[in-house]
Amino acid sequence: MNQNEIIARDRLKADAAARGAPEYEPPPLTPPPPARPIVEFETGARRDSDHDKLDFESFEHPLVIERFAVYMNKHRTMSNGDRREADDWQLGIPVWRYVKSLVRHVMEIRKWHRGVLPISVDQQAIEESICAAIFNLHGLLFEVLKTRIGLNAVDFTDAKRRSAGR
Questions:
Q1: Residues 6+ apart with CB under 8 A from 12
Q2: Quick one: which of 69, 66, 94, 90 has its CA closest to 157?
Q3: Are 93 and 126 members of one domain?
Q4: Model confidence pLDDT, tens digit, residues 43-92
């Protein structure tokens, strides 16, 4: 865990504690074995086995993370020319907006996959749609997790959208 992740985790914990919400605990993986095997390296250094530890390095590929970061950076500049902070989505976007956008981008991916859009369609366009879907899934999951840890209440209906006239 890098320094920024530690700071973000501690900030979430402090925010939750200030509101009297229960402290966030990630879901348990599998019950740990009674005793983990010890790994001894040629140097003599010893460590617990990493058998039941989350393998963040392997779960995502650097090419995918980099392409997504390029997408996110590109879309920091809004249509009016203003540039938003990279993490401003974490301030909160209504769930219904994430879902509507997700479905729209997934439809583009499906049309390409089903051959409705020619395979020769600009690869950048397909990558953009995939990144947009990933963004919406990340944002949606973030809103759900915030609700679980008591960070804020999320309206999972579209009542606010209808009352705001979109």
A1: 24, 149, 151
A2: 94
A3: yes
A4: 999 988 888 788 889 999 999 999 999 999 999 999 999 999 999 999 99
Closest CA to 154 of 94, 83, 91: 94
The string of pLDDT tens digits covering residues 103-119 is: 999 999 999 888 887 65
* Alpha-carbon span 74 to 84, nearest angstrom: 11
Same domain, 128 and 154: yes
Residue that wins the pLDDT comparison between 101 and 38: 101
> Residue 136 corresponds to which tokens in the numbers above?
């919406």
* Residue at a domain's end among 33, 59, 85: 59
Instruction: Check residue 157 and give its pLDDT.
Output: 55
Question: Is the pLDDT score of 13 beyond 90?
Answer: no
**CA separation, residue 146 to residues 25, 62, 93, 103, 112 (Å):** 12, 27, 12, 22, 34
Strand partners, 46: 40
Give me the domain span that covers residue 27: 1-59
Q: Where among 40, 59, 78 does a domain terminate?
A: 59
